[in-house]
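User: Mind token order:
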Amino acid sequence: GMQKHLHSTAVVISLRGGGREVKKFEFEKNSILDISSNKRVVVIVLQKRLVLLDAGTFEKKWIIKTGYRGSELWTNPIALGERWLAFSDSKVHPHLLSVGGVSDRLTPPVASTVVNTVKKGFNALSDTLSGLTGRNSSQSTRTTPSSGENSPPVVTILDIEYSRSGEVQVSELRKTDGVLAHFLSHTISDTYITMLKFNRSGNILFSADSEGQYFNVFHISPNLLGSSECKVAHLYSLYRGTTTGIVQDVSFSNDSRWCAVSTRNGTTHLFPISPYGGPVTVRTHKVSHVVNQYSRYHTSAGIEEAGTGGGGTFNNGGTSPLMIPSLQQIKQQYLPGSKGNSLVSDDGTDYICVRAHFAPITTDNNINSLKLIGKNHAKNKAEYSIYILGGDGSLTEYLLEPIESTNNNTGAGGGVVNKSDEETQIGLQSAPKITWKLLSKPFDAPPTLSDDNHLISLHKLHQEKMQSLGGGSIFLPDKEGWLSQVELLSYAPPT
């Protein structure tokens, strides 16, 4: 478990030159809980603060005071994207509140097309009658929740490229001071956020609370006018189960159609989602590419998948989130007494350390457990691979294949029901393919790399290439010069 220190130190060591110390940061009466980084910044996570360093110079850029309510449990979750930083705030700041956020209006995962069509016609008629009476029932409103300390969990998203200096208090910022979004992420007041995670493109945000029964997925649509005009759509509530579980790891597939959530009991839950929301069916998930939000039938019939708006405790910008259950649970085996297989939490209980990551499928076909994907599989078939690393050092590749759910073809009386791809629920098959044992070396390797190391060689080649292109930064491309390079390589004048 994490020890409670009154004094913490973060040291930056060069991998070249004998492990030379580059920078050293000392924090009095603060424990370092986590360190995250991207090409722009390095974020040192403390109990009540976030320290942002420049990724190129390691100089302090600015400090964010979070006031995270769960910091006594030695956690302060953040999500760092390519340019956005999301963190849990202490309370709601009404002048920053965005449109939308969490909604308590859950929709079943699959609804009949006919029922949806009738419902949309009824809503259109209701809106027409409401217009005649001078009232608009579908008008999107902004409900301002309580701004006290007992308000539900709040998420703030900042632009890390916005020019700041010194210490930043969110309550003192204006909506145009680089604040992209500020919204409620959960509905229960006595809970706190335990995990935040962006997808690869950075516009989808995952949020988990201390209950760990439902996980919320949001789509962030920023606005140039500031956080109060940002639309936060609650796309999904991912249902894990009735028991309490603390999330320790989250991973999105590259196309944002699958989300893997690992809890401290060693189980990885796999959920199907869509980057634009809506039902997850055979049409959306059984092919290798991301399909359009609306099918040809919906487009030709003029049916729009729009939310009804109104209702609910918290308004979410006109959409109703879908409740999606876990399609697969991959359980890591816990061996009592085994070294490195588990960690100790703050309350003294053991939990299994698990990390999961979506990646391309390996090409080795000489594995007996390769039972999902054959040599003659369809080229347009969706196939995924997830790598799960256990605390004992075992890395296992699992093959994932979306299939038609077995609950689709049986009616209430036991007869066969024919459904279109619009209504057919998706299922998932998984099978372990290969396991690697990642054993640590019996000796402590020095924190340096030799000059012939491939990482150092690639660094030198990249540095020489950047200098030949105009001397841009080796950490970030030159903002003035990248456009000319794109035109040079991709554009040819007409002949």
Summary: The domain at 1-65 is CATH 2.40.10.480 (Thrombin, subunit H). Residues 288 and 380 are 5 Å apart (CA to CA). The chain has three domains: 1-65, 66-437, 455-490. The mean pLDDT is 76.
